[in-house]
Design a protein that fits this description.
With 420 residues, the chain is of the alpha/beta class. The chain has helices at 36-46, 63-71, 82-90, 97-113, 138-151, 157-173, 197-217, 231-237, 259-262, 264-269, 276-284, 305-316, 326-347, 370-380; strands at residues 2-3, 53-56, 74-79, 177-180, 183-186, 225-228, 244-249, 348-359, 361-363, 366-368, 384-395, 407-416. The protein has 2 domains: 2-82 and 221-258 and 275-416, 3-Layer(aba) Sandwich (Rossmann fold), CATH 3.40.50; 97-217, no CATH class. The strands form 3 sheets. An 8-stranded mixed β-sheet has the order 1-11-12-8-7-2-3-6, with helices on both faces. The protein has a two-stranded antiparallel sheet with strand order 4-5. The radius of gyration is 22 Å and the shape is globular. The two termini are 15 Å apart. The structure holds S-adenosylmethionine (SAM).
Length: 420
């Protein structure tokens, strides 16, 4: 079932790199997405028509919904993280460039004057006593807050969203740390970078200029809809997704990566989250692919032979795990995947296809064949497994755990609702 000669292999389809220069995609640097080309190829290959609905239950930065919209297809994305759902929604908004022109001077003035940020002295967000590292210099937070306060006065909903996205993006570009794998890593010589009001304004001007260009070269004719919430619930309750034709998605990988943690700065900057308890509550809504929350324990383990063999190995080598809850997390993850695939089945039209991008993981010295196990699970959920196409082999970072696993397979599981 593994197709190692898959037509999209090694062509950069499973990574975000081209999004940094593409219209609208470049409005926010989001590292964990796949390529818009991947979405285009899936649409082409699935042979759907313009009236068909495309969905993504783990929409992230919205590569699926934005690409679909730009190509003129209807699409709906579900995303649990309020910052990323905001991001994917802002990227499909249209406004007249003249509207932006009208507010630009006032925005710059507000940024220049600045405002007192609630994040000054909060946690690791700014410089304070007994802290040897902080995420943002005070001037950057003040400039951001000045711009944010100004955005409250913008009456146009779309314009307000776009400006807010530009402000968050600018702040992250002027932050002392940047995203790197599972964490935020402080930039080299971060304390000498000197991010301040002037660097902030310079980045903001560039971002706004890109946005203006993109609004003209890439207008959106078919708007996508973004639903904020846990897809395990939304897929049960919504009628909007009925009869989808193509699902292109990538769930969180089984790698203990916690998106609520990694996007914590944006969640607080954009006032999507206002305290640690709320952040924790959000974690409970996420797929159980990490160990950062005391989520409900899994009850099923009937996920096929490969799953059983994997769990046997892991349980026999528990000493070689970075955390005692990893076996439970793995079981819970596959339970979530079964749940999602069953729910998708209830919403699929007769000839629907699912393109499900996943990566294998390494635990206790073993490469966990996530793609093959999900292939088994999908069959149990009633889908026909068309193929598992290898997208690439990713070099694994050298760690104390599983040093013998050198690379991990990233692949797309292609499912069909009818026999082919
Ligand atoms: C691998 S990323 C998707 C990236 C996306 N393909 C893109 O190109 O931007 C997985 C996403 O699933 C989201 N997620 C996690 N648990 C979720 C849940 N229960 N419901 C909906 N989305 C969830 C995460 O917040 C994250 O944005």
């Amino acid at each position: 079932m593994i197709n190692d000669n898959f037509f999209l292999k090694n062509a950069g389809y499973s990574n975000y790199e081209d999004t940094t220069s593409l219209p609208r995609h470049r409005w926010y640097y989001y590292k964990e997405g796949y390529s818009p080309n991947f979405v285009e190829k899936a649409i082409e290959y699935a042979g759907i028509s313009k009236n068909d609905l495309i969905i993504d239950p783990f929409n992230g930065s919205g590569t699926t919904t934005l690409t679909s919209s730009m190509l003129g297809y209807k699409s709906i994305g579900i995303e649990v993280n309020p910052f990323t759902s905001f991001l994917s929604d802002a990227k499909v908004k249209n406004v007249e460039v003249s509207q932006l022109d009208r507010i630009e001077d006032k925005l710059l003035k507000a940024v220049n004057t600045g405002s007192n940020s609630p994040l000054l002295k909060f946690s690791t967000f700014s410089k304070k006593e007994n802290l040897d590292k902080w995420l943002f210099n005070d001037e950057v937070l003040k400039s951001f807050e000045g711009g944010w306060q100004f955005s409250n006065s913008i009456s146009g909903y779309n314009l307000r969203k776009i400006i807010r996205l530009a402000l968050i993006s600018t702040t992250m570009q002027n932050g002392n740390a940047k995203r790197d794998g599972k964490c935020l890593r402080y930039r080299n010589n971060w304390d000498r970078n000197g991010f301040n009001k002037d660097t902030f304004i310079e980045s903001l001007l560039l971002n706004i200029s890109n946005i203006k260009d993109d609004l003209q070269i890439a207008p959106i004719s078919v708007k996508s809809k973004i639903l904020r919430g846990d897809s395990r619930n939304i897929l049960k309750s919504t009628n909007e997704i009925n009869d989808f034709k193509l699902c292109i998605t990538s769930p969180p990988y089984l790698n203990t990566f916690d998106y609520t943690d990694i996007y914590r700065p944006e969640l607080f900057l954009g006032k999507f989250i206002r305290g640690s308890q709320k952040l924790y509550d959000l974690r409970l809504e996420t797929i159980r692919s990490h160990i950062q929350a005391k989520w409900q324990l899994p009850t099923h383990n009937d996920f096929g032979l490969l799953f059983q063999q994997t769990m046997k190995h892991i349980n026999e080598n528990r000493d070689n795990l970075m955390h005692k809850n990893i076996p439970l997390m793995i079981q819970a993850y596959f339970e979530d995947m079964l749940n999602i695939l069953k729910l998708l089945k209830t919403k699929a039209s007769k000839n629907a296809q699912v393109w499900f991008v996943v990566s294998n993981s390494a635990y206790a010295g073993l490469e966990v064949p996530v793609d093959l196990i999900i292939g088994d699970i999908a069959t149990k959920a009633g889908w026909y497994l068309k193929e598992i196409g290898v997208l690439r082999y990713v070099k694994k970072r050298k760690t104390k755990y599983s040093p013998e696993v050198k690379e991990l397979r990233e692949s797309v599981i292609i499912l069909s609702n009818s026999k082919f």
